[in-house]
Amino acid sequence: MEASSESESEAGPGTQRPGTGTVSAAVREHLRKLCLREFPCGAGSWNKSRFLPQTWRTWRELVPREEDVVSPGEETVEALLGLVRSPQSPWALLNDSNSEDSFLRELAIRNPLMIRDTFFYSYFRSLRVVDKEVTLVDKDLLKFLKLEELVLSANRIKEVEAANLPPTLKPNLVSLDLGFNDLTDLQSMLASLRTLRHLRLLVLQGNPLALVPYYRGLTVDSLAQLCVLDDITVSPNEKHLFRGLSLNADLLAQEAQFVVTIGNVRGLLDTSLLDPEPGPEGPFITYSYYVTYDFVKDEEGEANEYTDVLAEIVKPSPSLELLVEESPEEVIENVIEDVEEVTEEVEGSLESEVEEWGESEVSVISVLSTVLPTPRASAEELAKLRPRIDPRLCPSPGTVLFNTTHKPWAEVIPCNYEMQHVLRDLVPLKAFLLAGTTVTIVEEKILSWPAVLPAVDSPLSAKKGKGEKDKKEKEKDRKGKGEKEPAKVPKKKKEPPKELRQDPPILQVLGRGLVVLEPLLVGEPLVSTVCNFGVVHTLASDRLAFARDSKKIKKTAKKEKPKAVIPIYEGDYQPEPLTVEVQIQLNQCRSAEEALRTFAV
Q: From start to end residue, where is composition biased (Basic and acidic residues) (predicted)?
């Protein structure tokens, strides 16, 4: 075909030539792949005698002959048609070709002289260019004089110029498919579509503009003659509910609203069962659990003003962040400074006690040497000890990480999380919905240590022992005289020190999975799922939990009726998987009144 030739076809696979992004260029590329002027189609040495002018024929050629008799080296029409019809033929059409492609190739064999530009412009009533990287509806589309159906779905069109639509579209076009493009301005798009007086079927789903809450209502009210929108019939009640909305279209904010809800987490392993009992010097270990998800950030709008206290961007703690960002040399200097500061504090607190005990400074130094860690001189060794942030806890490019509040372990952890996301930059939002969001369950482990070091042994302890001996002798004398023994004061249970210093949190990903959000792009208002991350329990851990619960029951048996605890046997062991409930809802207006009340600027 010539470069100016245009035609119709349903877009099949294949790449488009560089520098072309228009409808007409996509049509030309498809016609080129049909090879309508190359063997076995078109006119050439394989059928040239059929198209010789009458004045060139000899008297022998004027003698009637059998239809299948042809000149040497030429092919009959039936033989040429067989080459394009046979699936085994190298000239056969691709599997995804449609009936109109077959018709064009056979026409190019039977009557190749008809394959001209004027034929294409006047013949085609339907033009389908699907998934061809088209970005512009160009003015060459005006050459199609009888076009009634236009399908341009799954391209990258951002706007449609009404002036570039063929005049015959305005009395004739009944169906228009612009789904899955990059159209963002709903009001401008509807202004262009109002010129199509006979439009009955319209597809706009998959475009960023279809994500605004009033999309369907405004479209239905703006195009009164529309019967089907996005494969859903427009009902009379729907037209009534959104009546008059198009009169105030300019007042509506172009933004999308989503509500993310995270429910219960089940099937968590109680990791504290595996930890030993803490001694007086620690460490005292605490665990908390939370859920994270990533969501696209709004580059176009103002700073996100999320007022919900449950939502926060996950960041490392200051101490962890410092260790991650500093170089090994800086870490060494900081460690030495920290050791010196701690040494001064401990010396100050211990020296006052040592003066009372009569101890020398040597004992202070010996205590410090046993408690404080010695700074490492090797940068390589320190680099190995620096904490690493799990890449699974980092958001994807262009997204922000959100998380629920931290909660202690329970068999069922109710997150009770709800967050509204308002987004004005709709094109990245579409890409995010196609990619989906990643949901992660995280365990945070924090080790705490006493802020004040334990007391140092001194001669006072010997004096104390002597006092206890005298006390026992007095008690013996009292018993000999028949005096009553004073009531014993119960010993208080040993509690951890009130002042603790905490290590940077240790984060562990317990489960991670993708939640598919594409249904929100094709018109579904809600995605609700239970993310299943598999079983994290083991038979050994559940037996430890059983033993702990049994001890609790024995302690409370005297006070109240104990709950039954079912023993665990290996044969019928069926642990609950780790799951979390997730919902993402796309806000949609149900009436014109609601749209104006909520989104009027």
A: 465-488
